[in-house]
Amino acid sequence: TTGAPANSGSSAIVESAEDNPDGGCHIYRNGYYGSGLSVVEGILEVNIIQMTSIQMTESQAENSLVDFVVTCQGSLPTDVCTVVSDPTCQVSKSVVCDPIVISDECLLTIRRSFGEPGTYCINITLGDDTSQALASALISVNGGEYT
């Protein structure tokens, strides 16, 4: 058995070792241990506050563009991902992820293209190194306009 005397005001660690009948050795440590813990706020909430169809010329009409205005609460995101799915939100049609830089207020506009008319489920995820938050919406795109 080995040991280190405890000093007042400092952490004491006492180690002891004993033989085990199984042929192994067990080490017992007694004393005070410390660790650090950091609490981060994270992205708490994401909201799609506006959807706007972008007017296109007739030569550009093969794709419909929609701008999504998004806000969030909590820490500022560093990336945004948009998943476009079928109306049930089960079958993904496209995924687009982009890095973003927001310096003050969490308010951003995301522009996405829709290749054909139809109803889509939109999932917008904002993320940073420690958290993610999601907002969803159903959108019906009709040849350059949405409802």
Largest sheet: 5 strands, antiparallel
Can you count the helices? 0
Strand segment count: 10
- What string gives the helices and strands in order? EEEEEEEEEE
Instruction: Using the coordinates shown, work out and report the CATH topology of the domain at 43-141.
Output: Immunoglobulin-like
What is the CATH C level class of the domain at 43-141, in words? Mainly Beta
Radius of gyration: 28 Å
Strand share of the residues?
A: over 45%
What are the segments in which pLDDT stays under 50 over at least 5 consecutive residues?
A: 1-10
InterPro entries: PKAT, PKAT_KLD
GO molecular function: integrin binding
Protein name: QNR71 protein
Pfam families: PKAT_KLD
Textual characterization of the structure:
- This protein has about 150 residues and is mainly beta.
- It has a domain at about 45-140: Immunoglobulins (Immunoglobulin-like), CATH 2.60.40.10.
- About 0% of the residues lie in helices and about 55% in strands.
- The protein has no helices and ten strands.
- The protein has strands at about 15-20, 25-30, 45-55, 65-75, 80-85, 90-100, 105-115, 120-125, 130-140, 145.
- It has a five-stranded antiparallel sheet, with no helix packed on it. A three-stranded antiparallel sheet has the order 3-4-7, with no helix packed on it. A two-stranded antiparallel sheet has the order 1-2.
- A hairpin with a 5-residue loop joins strand 1 and strand 2 (about 25-30).
- The termini are far apart.
